[in-house]
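Problem 12. The chain below contains 61 residues. Write out its predicted structure in token notation.
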Amino acid sequence: MTHVPFLIAAFSVFVLVLAADAFGSWLRLRSAKRQAMRKQERLRAREKTPATAPLSTELSR
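Solution.
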């Protein structure tokens, strides 16, 4: 009786869990980067627009 099949199965499960964890971390990091870029773009757009923009006369009619 040999333990080789058990060892192969155990290491396979370990590698699968490790790969799933790495993939999940990569997805979270990608999402966080995308969110940070959107926030930066919003802040830049907010800085470019004047703080006291005149109201349009068409909206008040």
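Discussion. The chain has a mean pLDDT of 88. Students who got a different answer should revisit the alignment rule from Section 12.3.
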